[in-house]
Fold this protein.
Amino acid sequence: MAKRPKGRHLQLSGRGVGPSDTNHMLEIFFALDRMVVELSMLRYSVSRRDRNIMREQNQRLHDAFREYLPPILDISESPSFE
């Protein structure tokens, strides 16, 4: 495996990731998750009634993530990667 040059480091602290960036990343994740759920339901021929149940469960999961994940991702408490 090739080694990285020592002069290069991942620098996240200088970017200033804010709450709107976190929300945007979450929305992208949720859209991808919904797409995977829809494709899975089509692939496995899930009945219409069960599709509605799965969509509701998926929405509840997304709502829980929206409520509990942002405090966990609080950038001010995260360690710096300098």
The chain is about 60% helix and 0% strand. Residues 33 and 58 are 9 Å apart (CA to CA).
